[in-house]
Amino acid sequence: MKFIRTKSLVFLNNKWWVWKTTIAFNTAIKFAKKWYKTVLVDLDPQCNLSRLALWENFDNNLFSWIDNNIYWVIKWLTKWWSDINLNINFQEIRDNLHILPWSLKISEYQNLLITAYNQATWWQEIWFFQTSAIYRFLKEKWLNEDIDIFIIDASPSLDLLNRIILLWVDYFITPLNPDAFSLQWIENLWNTLDDWKNNWKNSAKALAWNIPNNKVLNWEWLFIWYVINSYNQYKKQEIKSHREWIEKIPDSIKKYLSEKHCKNWLVEKSWKESLMNIKDFWELPTDWQVKQKAIFELTPWKDFPSVKWTNENLELANVQFEDFTDNIINILHKY
Predict the structure, then answer these.
(1) Predicted model pTM
(2) Any residues with CB less than 8 A from the CB of 31 and at least 6 apart, and which?
(3) Are the C-beta atoms of 120 and 204 separated by less than 8 Å?
(4) Neighbours of 195 (CB within 10 A)
């Protein structure tokens, strides 16, 4: 292992089309290329991450006809006092990169969580047992398989499953578009997170004094940065409307996220500028999806000879994700 302990990182935004899944997938490939054993965890009902990673095998996973996806991990939790299935294996994508795919049948677990989360606040062990299920599965895996990092793709919402994810994940990054909706999302997120955190710590966690520690989730994640994506350029600079919104985002990040959910030297760094500004790469974001490759791995003359890309875009994507991943690695080694 390259870290002292296994790390978990989630990309989260309740707005659609912010490149959340794109960033997660491309970042995971960079981690794997740097010899960090990486596991993608698809916890987004859109299941786009599973599609990207598996492609031809995707349909089998979607409806759980094979037994190595998230549904088979938690299937028996719907039975009283049954537990997670530790025999489920991650699916290999390439060297150092695996995935735990999504399944549409996980709706059974999502329905269970509605009761489990509410009842956990009334101190009943089985509800802690059920809310901590995915965390306990991943923890057993990282202890036995020397995994360096889990990269989690969450749904574009503030639903109950995301609330459970935030109870156990280590780090949080939010992708943003240069628009008014992103500023509103930052404020919405702050209000929601504060309510969730206070509710859990003041009720469920406070009452769990005799529940085994591995079943009581902590809610101790760290906000580490934000990403700006899908901006347009003119003469090597962001277009005026995008630049105006990009300039407004840092103050909002500082007020609602960095000063409340960050710490030490990272507080100022996390809001002064984004961790990565991803321009609109025209055809790249859509065409790479059918090749099971990262954006920066494409070769225009081989993969799509009829598309007139510029090598400049591919090189820029490679540099941006290289720097982005190195910055994340630096933070994860310090915290």
Answers:
(1) 0.90
(2) 38, 96, 97, 148, 149, 151, 325, 329
(3) yes
(4) 10
Q: How far does Cα 176 stand from its chain's mean position? A: 14
| Count of positions (residues) in the chain | 335
Largest Cα span, the chain = 64
Compute the distance between CA of residue 191 and CA of residue 56 in angstroms, rounded to an integer. 41
User: Is the domain covering 7-334 a CATH 3.10.129.10 domain?
Assistant: no
Residue 203 CB neighbour total at 10 angstroms: 14
If phi > 0 it is left, if psi is from -120 to 50 it is alpha, else beta; for residue 282 that is left
Burial 53-83, CB ≥16 within 10 A → b, else e: bbeeebeebbebeeebbbbbbbbebeeeeee
How does pLDDT run across 131-184, given as a tens digit for each residue?
889 999 999 999 899 999 999 999 888 888 888 898 899 999 988 888 788 888
Secondary structure letter of residue 65 according to DSSP: -
